[in-house]
Specification:
The chain is an alpha+beta fold. A hairpin with a 2-residue loop joins strand 4 and strand 5 (107-120). It has helices spanning 5-8, 25-28, 38-53, 121-138, and strands spanning 12-18, 61-72, 81-92, 95-104, 107-120. Strands 1-3-4-5-2 form a five-stranded antiparallel beta sheet. The radius of gyration is 17 Å and the shape is flat. It has one domain: Hotdog Thioesterase (Thiol Ester Dehydrase, Chain A).
Amino acid sequence: MMVPAEDLIGAVAFSTMIVRPGDTAVAIGVGDLPVLANSLIINAMQSAAIASIAEHLDNGETTVETSIALEFHGGIAIGGELRTSASCTEVNGRELTFICESYEGERLVASAVIKRTAVERVSFLARTAAQSIQSSITS
């Protein structure tokens, strides 16, 4: 089991990326503007959230996303630098809540509240495989 909640609350991590042509909404096929695809902003937030608590998880334990409440405030052009932070703000049993913010310079580009649940890797993968087999049988 994870460390006590008080050791997780306040854990912070960061991720950064420079926007390349292949990172744009038009390149990925999710829009027609040459700005950073919103899905990659979400990826940066998830990466920071995972990194913030990674050292606090037991061996064989990880977290999976369970929900995200997200607001986009603007785009980032090719060559821009996305800087993202995530801070663990709440622990409720195995569920962790993170406040995430993404900036280009001083400009807030996106903000989110992400919830992730701590799981044991092998059990989670076994359960997922069993569910996939069951889905293919009933399809």
